[in-house]
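This section describes the prediction task in plain terms. A model, or a person checking by hand, is given the sequence of a single protein chain and must write out its three-dimensional structure as a string of tokens. No templates, partner chains or ligands are provided. The sample shown here is typical of the held-out split.
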Amino acid sequence: MTNDITTTVRGPEAPERVIARYRSHGRRLFWPVLVLMGVAAASGYYLGRLPEEWQNLTALGAAIALTVLLGLLPTIAWLARRYTVTNRRVIAVHGVFVRERQEVSLRRGFDVTVRRRGLQALFRSGDVTIHSGTGHPLVLRDVPDAGLIVRALTDLGDDGFVRMPTAG
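The expected answer:
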């Protein structure tokens, strides 16, 4: 018995392998690095030169607070967000204390869009949104070389299916 309908069949199962790992664009670290350099320069110049001991201790406390709040925390937040593209799925993990993980299977049909705002067009970065038909699309925020990621995801999605006509 033959079937006249063209069917979509998966190719042979290949082991899952990592294609790329991404973080948000490094441009987000500009201000924390600038703050760290400014705090280091100001601390090196002013600490120990103030007339009273309590002023030196207050300046040291302010330097530590600025370093932690404006330098260290944004860097940790940047490090805590990562994206992994494999030959079967896209995985987004973010969070410092509470980790959230989202996955989108590349085996299902999906739609990929890129949104660039502000300086993202200048740096060729952008927000890549993957709509997989579920209620919540996966957004890869401010990834570097967003066009390359879209082309790679499109190629990976196309490679997941092989069209095989049936005889008849």
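For orientation: Strands lie at 7-10, 18-22, 82-86, 89-94, 100-105, 111-115, 126-131, 138-143, 161-164.
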